[in-house]
Amino acid sequence: MRRSERLIRVTQALMEHPSQVCSLSEWAARWEAAKSSLSEDVTLIRQVVEEDGSGQVETFPGAAGGIVFRAQVPLAQQQAFVAAMAERLSDASRILAGGFLYMSDVLGESDVLDLVGRWFASVYANSRVNVVVTVETKGIPLAVATARYLHVPVVIARREHRLTDGPAVSLHYVSGSERRIQTMSISRRAMPEQARALIVDDFMRAGATVKAVSTLLNEFRAQVVGTAVFMTTREPAKKLIDEYFSLFTLEDLQEGEWVKVRPSREVQIG
Q1: Average pLDDT of the chain?
Q2: CB 134 within 8 A of CB 142
Q3: How far apart are CA 99 and CA 252, in angstroms?
Q4: Structure confidence at residue 176 as a pLDDT band (50, 70, 90)
Q5: How many Å apart are CA 29 and CA 191, to the nearest integer?
Q6: pLDDT single digits (tens) 219-233
């Protein structure tokens, strides 16, 4: 096999399996190549992806070692995305009754989901996340995209318990946006042992839903290592959770007149 072809195959294997340990021995057997040659290929790929900010390649020595690719979003791509998306979402025609913002079209686009999932995963790449948790239904696509780049399962906190989920733990809480009592439940079988959970959601106002998810996860003795949200509101300034990462902030809106969305402080770049 020519080196050019081998480089393509190695790069493809890493990109298609983010956050997964790839075995150098398996590659050597599959492609009939020397480990030393593959190591040189990995070194070259590492230099390229780290220079352009598209990811990091880690090598773990020893019999149980291997190579792991952790995807990132290059700075130029971050800048272009947040600028274009903030402008797109600052459209008065998106305002819904009750002071909500229509985002379903945006969060249904595969390119947006892939980029945001990559971004969320890169922020929490070193947090040893082993499960991504979200609430049905709008947060599910974002959670799945994030989980793919972290190579972990997704657990969904459901509004209504399903018999097919088996035994579950349920919680009643007061919704911050709708001001009414709601219920969420998580299947006991869904949660991994010694869970280190990343909560992912599409929108957060006061943080009541995320707080409820955190409380529910406590019943599983799970540790919440972070919260990633596509958009938060400027008010209330004091949220019910202390730490979170969001891409956009809904500054304010006047129903039927105007709306202002800006990149959140965490992503002020350039």
Answers
A1: 92
A2: yes
A3: 9
A4: low
A5: 36
A6: 999 999 999 999 999
